[in-house]
Amino acid sequence: MSQKIATRDAYGEILVELGKTNPRIVVLDADLSKSTKTANFKEVFPERFFNMGVAEADMMGTAAGLAAAGMIPFASTFAIFATGRAYDQLRNSIAYTALNVKIVATHAGITVGEDGGSHQSIEDIAIMRVMPNMTVIVPADGPETKKAVQAAVELEGPVYIRLGRSGVPVLFTEEEPFTLGKGKILREGKDISIIAVGIMVSKALEAAETLSQQGIEARVINLSTIKPLDEDIIIQAARETGGIVTAEEHSIIGGLGGAVSEVTAENCPVPVKRVGVRDTFGESGLPELLLEKYGLTPENIIKAAKEVLQK
Amino acid sequence: MVGTGQVDFNYLVEKAGTLRKHIIKMIGEAGSGHPGGSLSAADILTVLYFQVMNIDPKDLQNPDRDRFVLSKGHGAPALYAALAEKGFFPVEELWNLRKINSPLQGHPDMRKVPGVEMSTGSLGQGLSAANGMALAARVMGKDYRVYVVLGDGETQEGQIWEAAMTAAHYRLDNLTAFLDYNGLQIDGLCSEVKSPLPLLEKWQAFGWEVMEIDGHDVKEIWEACQKALTVKGKPTMVICRTIKGRGVSFMENVADWHGKAPNREQLEKALSELEGGSGGYEPKNCHP
Ligand SMILES: Cc1ncc(C[n+]2csc(CCOP(=O)(O)OP(=O)(O)O)c2C)c(N)n1
Ligand SMILES: [Mg+2]
Question: Which domains does chain B have, with CATH numbers?
């Protein structure tokens, strides 16, 4: 777990790979191509790259048109602008129409760091998850990002992939299979389940290790596809372990925690604790310090697990 | 109206130099931030804060105060430097920029910093907010003015043009906007990324009074502000030809310095250049 790769870097690499074999792939960006790493694609395929300037709504609408005409557009910018600035374009021109647009948003969550709360997207999973027709994926590391992007190309329809700014530990090998819509048990346990996405998956594994040393065996599930949701793996976790902790770099409202709670409430009510940003905006600061201040550490997961076990 | 003779332009030039030093030091201390666009807007902010605007750090809520909106919110260091120099908070606070628990967020936050009238950072939204403030003055019968600074890349946002229509439609002659025309955005030249040109003709066609000036000449900036006071029945747009990174030789007109902090050595070099005023090297001309 020593090597770290930013998911956006993995995105930049796979996009070029896929572009070589699939001439229908076109890429759009909104003046952030160096940060989102779509600049890699631009280097190799300048004629299939469109910089839309600082115009996210226009970018999403243009992507819809490209898709309607048979292309596979990837539209990238920061998560805050992709989902916030262009919400209605996503909703009405892309989701409502079920058009084949792939929205790959980087710099999600509070680990954006110093740019501050105006740039830290903690609502995008909720926003994207609520849209009919939309597939929502939150990869946990670089290799999973590549698999998710590949899966997105194979799927006909709109996909949202949420990526981060900072490096995250590599958890999976390039050979690790990825099935869209399926969660994955990364560690077995019968006492409690920790369901995590994105950067919180490695922290969930760390928490489980510490809990194990204290005699608590936690099941750890990577639920990278938030939509369509793998309800079976959640219900199974609820039945077999009797309690769940969710962990996400997102508001505790409407994201992974919300999704898991909806499924357990309807199918197998068990205590659920949500680790995430607690209905507040973020702020400027170093990512590591922000994770501590906003309660997104392995210690926070451990504490939540113990609270669930006490119920 | 104030005559030219009553304005101490040397004082303003000196003040702009102080702002630039603060900007560079602040970003250097923070280890991240946006020097290019902060330096290009420094002279505009200096003239507004130290000559033009009716504001008082001791009377923050005065309903008659002039309002300022930094629509290109990533230029926050320039705004913070102006506010600190004006006395809204101690200069020492500047060195906490972008640090956890500091009020000085990466982008201006009106709930955290005295003197910040509107939170910005998501580009394209500031002109609409400025329009709202200008409309409020009309409703309340106030004669304050609203000032707003836009980036040239920022004008690629559709909302800017929605707001441009609003300001003209409602004949907001109590609004003066400045366009920081430095020709650059993050991915390179605005004209190559997605051209917002021609600027002058666009704003004119949208029904604005348009002037074009040297955005680093404090006298021209001040004169434009004065002229805007005489415009009736429409808003004023002052297109300011500027140089991104102005004042630091190695940052000037280099897109890469949009959002990057100087290291120790670069910081020292930048500060020593700014110490010597703008002399010592030829500022680049990026508007041939
Ligand atoms: C809505 C939105 N999209 C993207 C960004 C990221 N961004 C920050 S600055 C910038 C370029 C702005 O260029 P310009 O307006 O010319 O600013 P300046 O050259 O004065 O720094 C971009 C794309 C943003 N802050 N807001
Ligand atoms: Mg610019």
Answer: 4-273 (3.40.50.970)
ipTM value for the complex? 0.96
Taking the Cβ of residue A292 and every Cβ of chain B, the question of whether any pair is shorter than 8 Å is answered with no
* Nearest partner of A65 among A34, A96, A36, A101, judged by Cα: A101
Ligand 1 atom 8: the closest Cα is on which residue? B74
A56 belongs to the catalytic site: yes
Nearest CA in chain A to B112: A283
Residue B200 in contact with ligand 1 by CB distance below 6 A: no
| Rounded Cα–Cα distance for residues A165 and A179 (Å) | 24
Whether residue B145 has its Cβ less than 6 Å from ligand 1: no
Whole-angstrom distance, CA of residue B231 vs CA of residue B213: 17
Across the interface, do B100 and A118 touch by the CB < 8 Å criterion? Answer: no
pLDDT band at B286 (very low <50, low <70, confident <90, very high): low
3-class SS letters over A132-188 = CCCEEECCCCHHHHHHHHHHHHHCCCCEEEECCCCEEECCCCCCCCCCCCCCEEEEC
Question: Would you state the structure tokens that stand for residue B35, as one six-digit string?
Answer: 């020097």
Atom of ligand 1 nearest to the CA of B34: 21
Residue that has been written with the tokens 């949208």 in this structure: B206
Identify the CA nearest to B131 among candidates B151, B146, B153: B146
Integer-rounded Cα radius of gyration of chain A: 19
For residue A290, the chain B residues in CB contact (below 8 A) are: 100
Q: How far is the CA of A187 from the centre of ligand 1 (A)?
A: 43
Domains, chain A, ranges and CATH?
4-169 (3.40.50.970), 184-310 (3.40.50.920)
Distance CA B223, CA A193 (A): 68
pLDDT digits (tens, 9 = 90+) for B126-174: 999 999 999 999 999 999 999 999 999 999 999 999 999 999 999 999 9
- A295 to chain B, any CB pair closer than 8 A? The answer is no
Geometric angle at alpha carbon A121, from A10 and A64, rounded to 5°: 70
CB of B251 closer than 8 Å to CB of B245: yes
Q: Which residue of A has its CA nearest to B76?
A: A115
Which candidate, B287, B243, B245, places its Cα nearest to that of B266? B245
Which of B105, B112, B162, B256 to substitute to test the interface with A, most A CBs within 10 Å?
A: B105
- Using pLDDT thresholds of 50, 70 and 90, give the confidence band for residue B5: confident
Q: Which of A56, A144, A248, A249 is catalytic?
A: A56
Q: A110 CA to middle of ligand 1, Å?
A: 20
Q: State the Cα–Cα distance between residues A36 and B94, nearest whole angstrom.
A: 30
Contacts for B276 with CB less than 8 Å, ≥ 6 apart: none
Cα–Cα distance measured from residue B216 to residue B121, given in angstroms and rounded to the nearest whole number: 24
